[in-house]
Amino acid sequence: MDGLALLKTQATGLRRDWNNILGDMTQEQVDYHPEGLANPISQLVVHSLGYLDTVVNKTAQGKTPIWDSGNWGTKINGIAPGRQDLAKARAAKVNLAALKEYTNQVLASVDAYLATAQPSDLDKQIPGAGGNMVPLANQLSSAIVTHFADHMGEISAIKGIKGGKGYVG
Predict the structure, then answer these.
(1) What are the tens digits of pLDDT across the range 98-116?
(2) 3-161 adopts what CATH topology?
């Protein structure tokens, strides 16, 4: 199996889990402020999707990220992709319907990209952390698999604290 086929397979499984976790999310769950220094689900969702949006659309394809082209900051209300001050993240009251629509658009863009990408695309050199050049495969794997799954676990746990079901088994 080549690297692109592996990414497609992993993306399919993660997408199924992501949709199961977010599908029945309530406004109360998405706005809940976990104990300690944990971010609310709303910030974790926007952060995860924002990174995915940027890597797949801007980095891999040279397009404007969906976040920017769709004016999602205004539609979702109050939070932005990337790392954010905890107080600011907790103060935001997001529009859950808009958050789910942004989710759908980003995931559809990933599917569209993976459907047309070629295995050789993964070798393209792009700027990585610290300014070093790295293969696009590194960023795609991080955005589509590792980073996405890490935050999906956080979201699932916080949702469970609020009485919802996280991963569907």
Answers:
(1) 999 999 999 999 999 999 9
(2) Four Helix Bundle (Hemerythrin (Met), subunit A) (1.20.120)
